[in-house]
Amino acid sequence: MRLRHILSIVIALTSGCAASSGTPPAEIDGAIVYANNCNRCHEFRSPTEFDGPQWSIITTHMRVVGGIPADESRAVYEYLKSQHHPPYLAANLGLARPTTADPAHGKTLVRERGCAGCHVVEGRGGTMGPPLDGISGRRSEAFVLQQLRDPKANDPASLMPVLGLAPMEIEAIWSYLQSLDGTDGN
Question: Does pTM top 0.70 for this prediction?
Fold first, then answer.
């Protein structure tokens, strides 16, 4: 219950205080249900990984297989649908997206997505996946970008999750990985 309260506060603060930002209560409730339930089985999944119609199918699955009540399933759907902002819509909503492949933004994404849980990054991290230090010297740009878009494309047995990254986020991560190797991509 305490986690639910803390998450409510975080969501309210990050959404610009729900009441003043016009965030519907269903979206806030959905974010809470998503955070408290979905990650138990699905680990980290970005709300932007799928679009509205895909989330509709998934939330139906949640009701049938996961036993989540209909009102909670609808709230989760509203939350997930609200998180999918194609680039043209993001600009209209005032959601800033980087316009260049910024290594600092890539570093933030690598940290936020928990890449060091499975990969060595800057000399520290897990060993389940290959080290990301020096990756631009071992793998082509095309390979790494494809891996970030669809981990199963290069290796169908890959354990790497789909990260739901926007194209500019993928470019930023690549730029960051190159900066670790002392290359600038040119």
Answer: no
pLDDT digits over 32-91, tens only? 777 777 755 665 556 666 666 677 777 777 777 777 888 888 887 777 777 665 544 444
- pLDDT tens digit string along 48-63? 666 666 777 777 777 7
DSSP per residue over 17-78, as a string? -HHHHT--HHHHHHHHHIIIIIHHHH-S--TTSS-HHHHHHHHHHHHHTS---HHHHHHHHH
The residues, ordered by sequence, that sit 6+ positions from 42 with a Cβ below 8 Å of its Cβ are: none
Q: Are 145 and 99 in contact (CB under 8 A)?
A: no
Burial of 5 (0-12, 13-18, 19+ CB in 10 A): exposed
